[in-house]
Design brief:
GO biological process, one term: cell-matrix adhesion
Helix content: under 10%
Order of helices and strands: EEEEEEHEEEE
Organism: Bombycilla garrulus
Protein name: TECTA protein
Radius of gyration: 16 Å
Distance between the termini: 33 Å
Strand order of the largest sheet: 1-6-7-8-9
Pfam family, one: NIDO
Length: about 190
C-alpha cells in the first residue's frame, strides 16, 4: 500500500462525523518544529488540514500564502463532509515497525541525510465524501509529521482521489468537480 497502516485496529482515534469538524486539540508527545517555530498542539481538521495551535474550519480555499497566517499542512484542503461518507483517523506513534518504514522511505529519497525516526503523527482521510455529494465517490489520503528530534519531515501519501470540490465551493454535486478545487501544500503562518 502507498499508505502507512491506519484505522481502529492500529489504535487510531477517529474524528467526529461533523461537516467542517475537527479532532480535539492533540497534545504532541514530541514537539514539532515547522518553519522555525516549535508547536506542541495540533488539530486534524476534517477538511483535509493538520493545523498548529488552532483549528481551521474554512472549506472554500484562499490562495497561499493566507492573509490570516495560520500555520498548517494541507494534504488535501477541500470541503470534506464525513457525515456523507468516510472516516478520518489519527495517531501519534513510537511503534518501531512503523518508524522503521518511515525512516526507510525518507532515506530512499534523501540518502545523504541519515535519518532515524523516533516519533510520528499519522493522519488519514479514508474514502471521505464532499459537501453536497449525491454520489458514492470518496478520497483517501494521508499526512505524516515525523522527527528524530533534530530534523522534521512531512510526508503526503495519496491512494484514491475521485473528487476536487464540494458544492458550497461551486462544485458539481454529482461529480465533485469544478468550482474552487482542493489545494495541497503548507502554510507557515
Amino acid at each position: 500500500s502507498l499508505l502507512y497502516p491506519y484505522g481502529p485496529h492500529q489504535g487510531n482515534e477517529t474524528n467526529p462525523k461533523h461537516d467542517d469538524g475537527m479532532s480535539e486539540a492533540i497534545a504532541l508527545s514530541v514537539p514539532f518544529t515547522f518553519y522555525g517555530k516549535t508547536y506542541q498542539t495540533v488539530f486534524v481538521n476534517n477538511n483535509g488540514v493538520i493545523s498548529f495551535n488552532e483549528p481551521v474550519r474554512q472549506y472554500t480555499l484562499d490562495p497561499f500564502p493566507l492573509v490570516d497566517g495560520h500555520p498548517f499542512v494541507a494534504p488535501y484542503w477541500a470541503d470534506v463532509d464525513n457525515v456523507l461518507g468516510g472516516d478520518i483517523f489519527y495517531r501519534q506513534s513510537t511503534d518501531s515497525a512503523l518508524l522503521a518504514d518511515i525512516s526507510q522511505d525518507i532515506s530512499q529519497y534523501f540518502p545523504k541525510n541519515p535519518f532515524t525516526v523516533t516519533w510520528a503523527l499519522v493522519a488519514t482521510w479514508d474514502h471521505v465524501a464532499y459537501y453536497g455529494s449525491t454520489s458514492k465517490m470518496g478520497n483517501t489520503f494521508q499526512a505524516v509529521l515525523t522527527t528524530d528530534s533534530k530534523m522534521f519531515y512531512i510526508i503526503l501519501n495519496y491512494w484514491d482521489i475521485q473528487w476536487t470540490t464540494g458544492a458550497a465551493s461551486d462544485g458539481d454535486t454529482e461529480t465533485g468537480l469544478g468550482g474552487i478545487p482542493a489545494h495541497v501544500g503548507w502554510e507557515g503562518g
